[in-house]
Amino acid sequence: MGLDIPVFQAYQGTEPPRFASPAELECAKVLDYYGIPWLYEPRTFVLEQAEDGRVTEAFAPDFYLPQQDLYIELTVMKQSLVTRKNRKLRKLREQYPDIKIKLFYKRDLERLAQHFRLDLAS
């Protein structure tokens, strides 16, 4: 995706982030503007494995806020795909009960975009 990536001040990663969508980029800009330390997709959680140990399902939340010990997942998908993501989040919460994660839906992002005058066009 050809997004114009700014130099982030609050980003805690070692490699420049490669965002999957304009919504992720805009979220990163808001976090950075407010000086909230963040990482982009720093961890993948294994949700299912085959008998041979091969990972068959995994989930990598979009952002991690280390000061809040909170993962954030964004979705601007159509509802049929959101259902699958919700299922993965339920599995993550069951298998990793100590992990804090918040899912922001398209409507949440639209409210933030309106408030912050962001461009979330996909």
Overview of this structure, please?
This protein is α+β, with helices and mostly antiparallel strands and 122 residues long. It has a domain at 60-122. It is 33% helix and 20% strand. The protein contains three helices and six strands, in the order αβββββαβα. It has helices at residues 22-33, 79-95, 106-116, and strands spanning 39-40, 45-49, 55-59, 63-65, 70-74, 101-104. The strands form two sheets. It has a four-stranded mixed sheet. Strand 2 and strand 3 form a beta hairpin. It is globular and about 45 Å long.
Chart the SSEs and their pairings.
Elements: H1 22-33, E1 39-40, E2 45-49, E3 55-59, E4 63-65, E5 70-74, H2 79-95, E6 101-104, H3 106-116
Parallel strand pairs: 5-6
Antiparallel strand pairs: 1-4, 2-3, 4-5
Quick summary:
With 122 residues, the protein is α+β, with helices and mostly antiparallel strands. It has 3 helices and 6 strands; from the N terminus they run H-E-E-E-E-E-H-E-H.
Would you list the SSEs in sequence order as H and E? HEEEEEHEH
Note the total helix count.
Answer: 3
The whole-angstrom Rg is 15 Å
How would a textbook summarize the main sheet?
Answer: 4 strands, mixed
Strand content: 15-25%
Give the helix/strand class: alpha+beta
| Helix residue percentage | 25-40%
Distance between the termini: 10 Å
Q: Tell me the overall shape.
A: globular
The whole-number mean of residue pLDDT values reads 86
Instruction: Please report the total strand number as a whole number.
Output: 6
Q: Strand arrangement, largest sheet? A: 1-4-5-6
Low-confidence stretches: none
